[in-house]
Amino acid sequence: MERYTNCKLENFCDHVLITNFKQYIKRFREKTKGKHAEGNFGIVNAADIKG
Question: Has residue 38 been placed in a domain?
Fold first, then answer.
């Protein structure tokens, strides 16, 4: 996963969005205040979502 997302595995959390659709990354990041990383695919790690 690190290779495709430019995000270290230890930074992955329970709620993750991985996609190459930038509009989904943007909306998920805005909605969750998650941390964004970009490689071949964008990723947002959202640790603070209440389930």
Answer: no
Residues 36, 25 contacting (CB under 8 angstroms): yes
Both tokens of 15, joined, read 């709620």
Instruction: State if pTM tops 0.70.
Output: yes
In a domain, 6, yes or no: yes
pLDDT tens readout for residues 14-48:
888 889 899 999 999 999 999 999 998 999 999 87
CA–CA distance from 15 to each of 19, 23, 30, 43 (Å)?
13, 18, 14, 11
pLDDT on residue 51? 59
Torsion over CA: 15, 11, 4, 35 (sign): positive
Find how far residue 1's CA is from the centre of its chain: 11
